[in-house]
TrEMBL record:
Residues 189-289 form the Fe2OG dioxygenase domain. It comes from Dioscorea zingiberensis. This is Fe2OG dioxygenase domain-containing protein. Belongs to the iron/ascorbate-dependent oxidoreductase family. InterPro entries: DIOX_N, IPNS-like_FE2OG_OXY, IPNS-like_sf, Oxoglu/Fe-dep_dioxygenase_dom, Plant_2OG-oxidoreductases. Keywords: Dioxygenase, Iron, Metal-binding, Oxidoreductase. PANTHER family: OXOGLUTARATE/IRON-DEPENDENT DIOXYGENASE (PTHR47991). Its cofactor is L-ascorbate. It holds the Pfam family 2OG-FeII_Oxy. Coiled coil: none annotated. Gene3D superfamilies: B-lactam Antibiotic, Isopenicillin N Synthase, Chain. GO terms for biological process: defense response to oomycetes.
């Protein structure tokens, strides 16, 4: 029964259920994680735009991830969204079950783990997935509890979209393209959100909140819990903990920007680990190409004779392929390489 597998059902677990335990070779090896490094931090308020752009180039090539500070989203707005996510997952299980579905094609749904229909081992996470653009099409069907949910989350969605477009402009410039290039080729972009909830876990060494994956979309903007770390990014074969920075947002290149940049920028493996002491939430906003958009490298990035690394495909084709798989398989882009 679905309410039994929902981790936020209120049931306390004294030990990790068997179907969450990873075999020894797949465990997170938490003692090997690098904790005293961080991903690049970029101050968007600097007046020297050329400097910001060169920091973006470097971050996208070296880490595929960066944090932005002094962006235009108010601290109060960020705090309210995190609080709203926590309040949502604290609702009685009967209220939450109205939204439960493990069908990945549903546009508004509460689920657990990643893809319970495909996977054999589950992940220590519940998540609320919401389509967010155009807001007026989706907000009426969003959760009506907690009472402020729709207001708070839709304000945040508007702000995140603006920030996302600002970043796509900077990323275009950093690739030597016109500022509006990426935004324009991605078409009328969809915007999805995952509110992730990771309750305290009795045996965090044996499982994941989310195992290593790359994001299938174009750009991800992640609001991390300020209190509890959990995100880790793979760099040169080692996992680096992304320590929360006050009022920062974590940005990562998704698979579509790796393809569009003809492999210059990387959609990097990342994962969320859990802990035994504290619940953690994160709110991921995904900017996604319009489903009919054809993804391929701009002329400017192949005119020097560099071959196109990936074949052209529509985002619709990519997205269906992504969700037909389990999360921690090979990089989904590998399946779209040019012959
Ligand atoms: O919870 C996190 O820090 C990571 C979330 C994430 O990677 C995702 O939702 O795709
Ligand atoms: Fe992710």
């Amino acid at each position: 029964m679905a309410e039994q597998i929902l981790l936020s059902s209120g049931l306390q677990h004294k030990s990790l259920p068997e179907n969450y335990k990873r075999p020894e070779s797949q465990r997170p090896k938490l003692d090997e994680v690098i904790r005293d490094s961080n991903i690049p931090i970029i101050d968007l308020s600097l007046s020297n735009k050329a400097h910001i752009i060169s920091q973006i180039t470097h971050a996208c090539q070296s880490h595929g991830f960066f944090q932005v500070v002094n962006h235009d989203i108010q601290k109060e707005c960020l705090e309210k969204v995190v609080e709203m996510a926590k309040e949502f997952f604290r609702l009685p299980v009967e209220d939450k079950m109205e939204l439960y579905s493990d069908d990945p094609t549903k546009k508004i749904r509460l689920s657990t783990s990643f893809n319970v229909r495909k996977e054999t081992v589950h992940n220590w996470r519940d998540y609320l997935r919401l389509y967010c653009y155009p807001l007026e099409d989706y907000v009426p069907d969003w959760p009506s509890k907690p009472p402020l949910f729709k207001d708070v989350v839709s304000s945040y969605c508007r702000e995140v979209r603006k920030l996302g477009f600002q970043l796509l402009g900077l990323i275009s410039l950093s690739l030597g393209l016109e500022e509006g290039y990426i935004k324009q080729v991605l078409g009328e972009q969809e915007q999805h959100m995952a509110m992730n909830y990771y309750p305290p876990c009795p045996e965090p060494d044996l499982t994941y909140g989310l195992p290593a994956h790359t994001d299938p979309n174009a750009l991800t903007i992640l609001l991390q819990d300020q209190e509890v770390a959990g995100l880790q990014v793979l760099r040169e074969g080692k996992w680096i903990a992304v320590n929360p920075v006050p009022n920062a947002l974590v940005i990562n290149i998704g698979d579509q920007l790796q393809a569009l940049s003809n492999g210059r920028y990387k959609s990097v493996w990342h994962r969320a680990i859990v802990n035994s002491g504290k619940e953690r939430v994160s709110v991921a906003s995904f900017l996604c190409p319009c489903s009919t958009t054809i993804i391929g490298p701009p002329k400017k990035l192949t005119e020097d004779g560099s071959p196109a690394i990936y074949r052209n495909y529509t985002y619709d084709e990519y997205y269906k392929r992504f969700w037909s798989r389990n999360l921690d398989q090979e990089h989904c882009l590998e399946l779209f390489k040019s012959q």
